[in-house]
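Consider the following assembly input.
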Amino acid sequence: MIWRDIQQIRKTAPLVHNITNYVVMNTTANALLAIGASPVMAHALEEVEEMISLAGALVINIGTLSPAWVEAMVKAGKEAQRRKIPVVLDPVGSGATKYRTDTALMLIREIKPAMIRGNASEIKSLLRSELGTKGVDSRHVPAEVLGEAKALSRSAGCVVSVSGPEDLIVEGDNVVRVSNGHPMMSKVTGMGCTASAITGAFVAVNPSPFKAAAHAMAVMGIAGEMAAGRSAGPGSFQMNFLDILSCIQESDITQRFKIQGL
Amino acid sequence: MIWRDIQQIRKTAPLVHNITNYVVMNTTANALLAIGASPVMAHALEEVEEMISLAGALVINIGTLSPAWVEAMVKAGKEAQRRKIPVVLDPVGSGATKYRTDTALMLIREIKPAMIRGNASEIKSLLRSELGTKGVDSRHVPAEVLGEAKALSRSAGCVVSVSGPEDLIVEGDNVVRVSNGHPMMSKVTGMGCTASAITGAFVAVNPSPFKAAAHAMAVMGIAGEMAAGRSAGPGSFQMNFLDILSCIQESDITQRFKIQGL
Amino acid sequence: MIWRDIQQIRKTAPLVHNITNYVVMNTTANALLAIGASPVMAHALEEVEEMISLAGALVINIGTLSPAWVEAMVKAGKEAQRRKIPVVLDPVGSGATKYRTDTALMLIREIKPAMIRGNASEIKSLLRSELGTKGVDSRHVPAEVLGEAKALSRSAGCVVSVSGPEDLIVEGDNVVRVSNGHPMMSKVTGMGCTASAITGAFVAVNPSPFKAAAHAMAVMGIAGEMAAGRSAGPGSFQMNFLDILSCIQESDITQRFKIQGL
């Protein structure tokens, strides 16, 4: 199933439209190319609706948000909704500032994403609007995160994908756990954003956002493990991660995947 | 001749002023440094005219355009024209949306670039304003692209450089074909943008935009071949490409270049 | 002392808030992660004050400035000043255009940074407001730079850190000289910006901006030497530099550091 999605991505090269943050534009575009998708970055109000009409998925990431960009996210997201093109929302840093939390909540209401992908503290912030997250990274999944992900999935009406040492993919009461991955992934900026972008490629070829999210997180984790195994640090990890994404094979998946619940 | 240009770039380190897209700012700056030029990125209306006065070339790339940036492109481009500083225009994604096509056509009219460098579908879009390109990459050069490049060269009054498995550099009826390059180049984001930036370095030291474009495409292709030969995928390709650009030697050029028509 | 700072950064992972340029957002975030700090990039007027309240240091870098971003720099900088959070200012390209020089001078007046970190021509431009710098890089430290750094330190009332073959860290009449580093560092874009970001991490854990600046420049230079020793060019240098920052050990520091005056 994972492998079928990868083959489909490589065969059809779906266009993934990203309205994302400045920090990761280059690295997420490269990850999408490496897995076989076609990335495009476009945020002008003048073109987002036309661009989304060509795309298989829209990825919205608020990592370096500002009002003009948020306006484009809403416009693109509404057009995606109208065209039934799935939207992946990455609420980067939600909880760190009120502006991020409020924007993420507004986007959920206005755009109705197919999926929200974030770390545990971001997911939590969207549930209870609590502030106090330190910055944009979260290194461990608290024990209570499953309940929070379920609650957010219900309130937002979409799949919730929470990354951490164990990734959780939740749709209502359905839960998939992915235990692939490597600690080195948290030492490279934008690996969460890359997970969201890659999820965009999978959701473009798999009609189930729930399965697409699980497959994407497994591939991220497997490529991360394989890259870490040959890397001396985060610099070489980045390089190896792209190399591996571009040539990952069925046997890599079948030998390594650690998924429960799918 | 190619080698003389490289020596001249390394010796004089021409300042190449880029108004380019967010995705490739880092990678194109690094490519310019690697070949020996001095990159600067500046887009504020408050400074583009003063910055261009220091530069040997201006590279305008619409990959993540928005109205404020387009305004800066026009302002910088007009000042470059006034000062007879050559402008390279990269119409990224022209054809994918009306906004991109219209902006590229407007820039051609207002700025009169010395050169337009794009892929086959971008070039075609500027000729007939046809829409329907899927995204921003184009993997094969259609048979009719030569005619389209000639027509654009005539209508725009400038050199047209079309990248593809075989690069075409066209000025009116004069045609150069460059057959260097490697398929892995299409798996790294921004290699076309890098070609435009590198072309900026060559046009800063060579008074003939036609020859500068051909030399730049040959060096891109040769460095791409050499990098691909030692790379396991797009991650290591990026790294090796920069390493090779920085230490490419005359013998690499003379042994590998595949240019017809120059 | 250097080693104690590194340990402290790794242990406490201070949040370093960056309002920086598009070119280096990815690479400076990765350098901060590699040394052990937590980077965040945020520039919206709606959130900069709240974000800075979570941070241990603020790094302001004008490399791709525009009025909206400058407004955010002032707002964040004033809040940092109010909260006694140290600010590192990197006046990228000051001297190249009047807009950059004027903005840097205004930021110094309005924000009162704890430290200004730039190259020799940028520092000089802030002293005499002379124009004529070619672009944003400066390859050698003129003999008179020490006097200029001292004058700027006095007029701005802060530490001045000047990078070059020999780095100078100046506070009034106190001077530290750091002779670590490698010429390959000038062939990678944003190494100066990375020095400023890393300085932000050190100033977040060391109460003396003067010592923090010296330690940061020494670590930059040592990591640069070690990376250059195993790199074929600027591409592999970038990768190795991050790998080394992430696993640099006490013995690397004690065996290599070349600091005078501390």
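The two ends of chain C are 10 Å apart (CA to CA). Ask yourself how this observation constrains the way the partners meet.
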